[in-house]
Amino acid sequence: MIELRGVTKRHSDEVCIGPVDLTIPAGGITALVGPNGAGKSTVLTMVGRLQDADEGRIEVAGRDVTRTPSREIAKTLSILRQENHFITRLTVRQLVAFGRYPHTRGRLTLEDERYVSEAIDFLNLGPYETRYLDQLSGGQRQRAYVAMVLAQDTEYVLLDEPLNNLDMQHSVQMMRQLRRAADELGRTVVIVMHDINFAAHYADHIVAMGDGRVVETGSPAHIMRPDVLERIFKTPVDVVDGPQGPLAVYY
Amino acid sequence: MAERTPSPAGVARLPVDGAPAQRRTGPFRTARDRRRYRLVVAALAVVGLASTAGILLWGNEAEPGSRAFWLIAQMRVGSLAVIALVALCHAFATVSFHTATGNRIITPSIMGFEALYIAVQTTVVFLLGAAGVSAATGVGPFLGQALLMVAAATALYSWLLSRPYGNVHLMLLVGVVLGGGLGALSGFLQRLLDPNAFDVLSARLFGNISNARTEYVLVAAPIVLAACLALWLRGRRMDVIALGRDVAVNAGLGHRRELMVTLLLVSVLMAVTTALVGPMTFLGFLVATLAYSLVETSSHRRLLPVAALAGYAVLALAYFVLRHVFYAGGAVTVVIELVGGIVFLVVVMRKGRL
After folding, report:
1. Domain limits of chain A?
2. pLDDT at B167 (0 to 100)
3. How far is Cα B85 from Cα A95, in angstroms, rounded to an integer?
């Protein structure tokens, strides 16, 4: 369980995120949605201790993320942002192996190698594992980074817009793989995403944010209603019944 | 396709839970890259050893094996030790600096080490005259000057990195600006010097292997070796740091602390080499770029020794050819700077970005 209590981040006098009170249950996929500037990524990066909160308390699995040693946190929580400056001369396998760093400090045992291989296979990167990162397409590289955080073998996996720059096919593949990570590997996956229809289809819980605060939380069925969506996104939205559940139409 | 690494006692041959055996992670992509690495190390070692032998033996007129022969050889060992120290300093400092700043196209001298060295030297000559130069020699002033440079650099980056919006690029920019200011100050003082004093000063402002005195080497060697060992031991951390702040924090590293420690070690190395032989702007860049392009790996524990070996080979070869063949020992740095500067331009042009 991830718990935020009175979490505030002041970017400037006008721009302030929070106070955010939020509980994200363990297990399944939770999607953070909302308009631009709502504070989704800020909240995610604060939970992942990439940014410090100015006020408030964040606990992941009962441990305060700012007080617990970073190395210990790295064994229960992993976070991936969308922009990673990749270095040349680094193969997919070498990158994924960095996911084992919190456990091994760089000395890989056979067991670590097994985690690395499994993460690579899980994201169907087996044929590419000896390729350099700059020899991959954007989508493959994205998957390689996701494989890295899966190899970290943490209960909680936080992903900041993993669907950015992915086309239709790769977005669907990515979400299916994350769904499997939640179902088969028992991970708690928290994703920041833009597409409400993707969120509704793949997530178990949706947290909607706006103007730095939590506007609505609930199951996809609860969120996928015209009045709720309109309040979240501040734009008229129709909800129609699609072949695989409700679809938001807002064009 | 997976890289195969021989493992102790054949443990890797046991199949592990369905995963194909021997899928291992190594520092090299293929066995070919590993062979290439060994070949590069061997080739650089051969060049280094040949230049060493050349420096020791070439033009040694005394009868081989006689006492005079060994005396001459011994005097030359001092230069070799200086070359080794300078190569170690520049190679380790530059590669680590590149990783810490996430930029492979700058040199640590951008932090203002050279400007500070020039300012100190100029001030000494300005205040004490040409005679002041001899007053400012000795282990005390040498260490004092190195310490001053470390303190200045540490103050600069610990101040800038601990501010809320402090980042590496801001730190570099401030370093450049401060360096420019110090340079202008030195230039002004130099204008006021009398020609004799200026002549003495200008000889010290260009990096020169013969600037170093033997007693400096004995003091500098333990410091340099300790700093290099510390950086090498941090190699695996630097592998993670190279992936950027977010990945490093995710892996459980205190990113700011890691940066501070790395930059502190870098400033120690740069301060010692600058106090030892004077500024050499492009040597570090030259050898780091050589190492990156010769070796197909991103493992710091593999890269650092190669950069240092390349540094030794380049410096020793240049020293041997210019001093013992062309009798122009003072020009070593000039040539290195020229070659390094050209490599720098080529890299900038080829990459097309900074």
Report:
1. 2-249
2. 72
3. 34
Label each residue of chain B as H, E or C. CCCCCCCHHHHHHCCECCECCCCCCCCCCCHHHHHHHHHHHHHHHHHHHHHHHHHHHCCCCCCCCCHHHHHHHHHHHHHHHHHHHHHHHHHHHHHHHHHHHCCCCCCHHHHCHHHHHHHHHHHHHHHHCHHHHHHCCCHHHHHHHHHHHHHHHHHHHHHHHCCCCCCHHHHHHHHHHHHHHHHHHHHHHHHHCCHHHHHHHHHHHCCCHHHCCHHHHHHHHHHHHHHHHHHHHCHHHHHHHCCCHHHHHHCCCCHHHHHHHHHHHHHHHHHHHHHHHCCCCCHHHHHHHHHHHHCCCCCHHHHHHHHHHHHHHHHHHHHHHHHHHCCCHHHHHHHHHHHHHHHHHHHHHHHCCC
Give yes or no for a contact between B41 and B306, defined as CB atoms under 8 angstroms apart: yes
How does residue B41 score in pLDDT terms, banded at 50, 70 and 90?
A: very high
Level-2 CATH architecture, domain B65-280: Orthogonal Bundle (1.10)
pLDDT(B330) > 90: no
The secondary structure of residue A21, as a DSSP letter, is: E
Domain limits of chain B? 65-280
Q: 3-class secondary structure for B189-213?
A: HHHHCCHHHHHHHHHHHCCCHHHCC
All residues of chain A having their beta carbon less than 8 Å from the beta carbon of residue B303 are: none
Give the chain A residue nearest B301 (alpha carbons): A106
**What is the DSSP pairing of strand A213-218 with strand A205-210?**
antiparallel
pLDDT tens-digit series, residues B249-272: 988 888 888 888 998 899 899 888
**Does the beta-carbon distance from B239 to A106 stay under 8 Å?**
yes
Q: Compute φ and ψ for B307, nearest 5 degrees.
A: -60, -40
Token pair for residue A65? 């993320």
At A171-200, the pLDDT tens digits run 898 899 899 889 988 899 999 998 888 888
Nearest to A203, CA basis, from A179, A239, A233: A179
Question: How many residues are there in chain B?
Answer: 354
Is A136 an interface residue toward B (CB < 8 Å)? no
> What is the ipTM score, two decimals?
0.88
Which of A206-215, B276-285, B326-335 holds the top average pLDDT?
A: A206-215
Backbone angles phi, psi at B297, to 5 degrees: -160, 160
For A106, which residue in chain B has the nearest alpha carbon? B236
User: Given 3-state DSSP classes, what are the helix, strand and coil percentages for chain A, each rounded to the nearest 5?
Assistant: 40, 30, 35
Average pLDDT over residues A217-235: 87
B81/A251 Cα distance (integer angstroms): 73
CATH class entry, domain A2-249: alpha beta
Are B16 and A113 in contact (CB < 8 Å)? Answer: yes
Segment B113-168, tens digit of pLDDT: 788 888 888 888 888 877 767 766 778 888 888 888 888 888 877 777 776 666 77
Mark yes or no for CB contact B252/A74 under 8 Å: yes
